Amino acid sequence: MKFKFAPVLLAVLSLLCWPGLVAGTEPVSPSTDLLQYRCKVLTDPELAGRGSGTPEVEAAAETLAVWMAELGLEPAFDGSWFQEFPLSGEGWTGDDLSGKTSRNVAGILPGRGRLAHRYVVVGAHYDHLGRVTPTDGPAPPAPGEFYPGANDNTSGVSIVFEMIRLASAPDRGAGDLRSVIFTNFSGEEVGLQGSGFMVSHLPVDPDRVDAMINLDTVGQLNADRLYVSGVGTTPSFTDRVHAANAGDLELSLAPGGWSGSDHMSFNTREIPVLFIFGGAYPEYNRPTDDWPTLDYPAMAKVTAYTDRLLHSIRQDPDDLPWIMIAEKNLRADGEEGQNRDTWFGSLPDFTTEIKGYKLAGVFDGSPAAMAGLQKGDVLVGLGGSEVEDLASFTRALRSHGPGDLVEVRVERDGRLMNFTVVLGDRSDRE
Questions:
Q1: Can you give the CATH number for the domain in which 48 is found?
Q2: Is 166 exposed, middle or buried (0-12, 13-18, 19+ CB in 10 A)?
Q3: pLDDT tens per residue across span 356-372
Q4: Engineering a disulfide at 212: which of 82, 119, 176, 266 sits with its beta carbon 3.0 to 4.6 angstroms away?
Q5: Is the pLDDT confidence value at 6 over 60?
């Protein structure tokens, strides 16, 4: 797509002239100026909140590709920076996405030595919610007429680019290093569609992807608290997550990697993941989530931390086996209901848009496993209730108690199958 947005293009060109931007000439510490500048460019009204399926999000993709090229990455997709994928469903404002496409943007930083053929994916989504009222009008929206999405998620994108700059520095020491696929996903806000597509169409052999780090909503910290989840998805992560902290962050750790962002697409495919998250903030999904509200010194801390963490993982000489971790507080819809102690024993697959509840995994010894359910099954009914998605599955499950026998209707390999499940108690998971 040809770049059509002159004001943003001028911003990109001015950024390219920023002293020290080119890889190999920069200091090896995060730049608050560059962090702020990238967020300011991506929240420009010309990009109108980067809504999925819009010309503006495609213009943002062009901007990101220019930045990747200037920082010396190699295009990830057979000589291209872009991976186009089809969109489905509805946008944030109810517009039909059917027939539209969007693009992931990715580049590769080569590793070295015997680990060079192994990969770590580092990602952040660049799409957001777009305009408050959908329109194809040519004029940029005024303040309050679009969702800038500064914290969610120009903050993550900006940090990824600082990580590229730091990881490309010539003074990172000797020894073997994994290669890195630095990725900006689109379609996150409409159901992880970009990351779901990419994990099914990786630019390298999937067996060579050892880990994935996802940054989302990292533009503000409360009392320097940084949330890191997924630390249990491979044995070495816990020690490395702690060791990367220079003491300037208060880490809040969780073993599972199922909270709602692009890392879930990789966790579903049995790739160890780490999710870096700054916590809740008052501007979430509001037109006031703009670049002046971000804490750029805090973002510099997160950048330095995640850079050290990435470098540690790149150096790890051992395999990184994936471990399936349950998430105790996984909830579908936040609704109050009875029988919240009822246990089924599965995890949802968020990477596909289908009718039903697709299983990303089934826990050993769980009621679902003992009944014969397996990864990839699509539940379409439970206990006489129709299951259309995760929310309806949860409502149906909560209508039964531990010890109840329920019939579960499943689609498997194009066939409808029935299973009888004896529901368990959540306390039995321990």
A1: 3.40.630.10
A2: buried
A3: 999 988 988 888 988 88
A4: 266
A5: no
Of 379, 82, 56, 53, which is closest to residue 190 (Cα–Cα)?
53
Identify which of 180, 9, 56, 60 has the alpha carbon closest to the alpha carbon of residue 108.
180
Query: What is the DSSP-derived secondary structure letter of residue 106?
Result: E
Identify the three-state secondary structure at position 380. Answer: strand
Query: Is 249 contained in some domain?
Result: yes
Tally the domains of the chain.
2
Q: 311 with 347, same domain?
A: no
CA dihedral 233, 238, 244, 245 (to 10 degrees): 120
Check residue 45 and report its DSSP letter. G
Q: Which domain holds residue 425?
A: 342-429
H or E stretch at 379? strand 378-382
Q: Which residue has the tokens 């914290």?
A: 151
Alpha-carbon distance of 197 to 324, in angstroms, equals 22
CA angle 57, 122, 320 (to 5 degrees): 150
Structure tokens at 196: 């779901």
pLDDT of residue 333: 37
Q: In DSSP terms, which residues pair with 209 in a beta bridge?
A: 119
Residue that has been written with the tokens 């993709």 in this structure: 61
At position 248, the amino acid (one-letter code) is D
Instruction: Please give the backbone phi and psi of residue 318, each rounded to the nearest 5 degrees, phi first.
Output: -95, 165
Q: What is the pLDDT of residue 430?
A: 52
**Residue 2 CB contacts under 8 Å (≥ 6 apart), including other chains:** none
Beta carbons of 213 and 280 less than 8 angstroms apart: no
- Nearest-CA neighbor of 165 among 60, 273, 19? 19
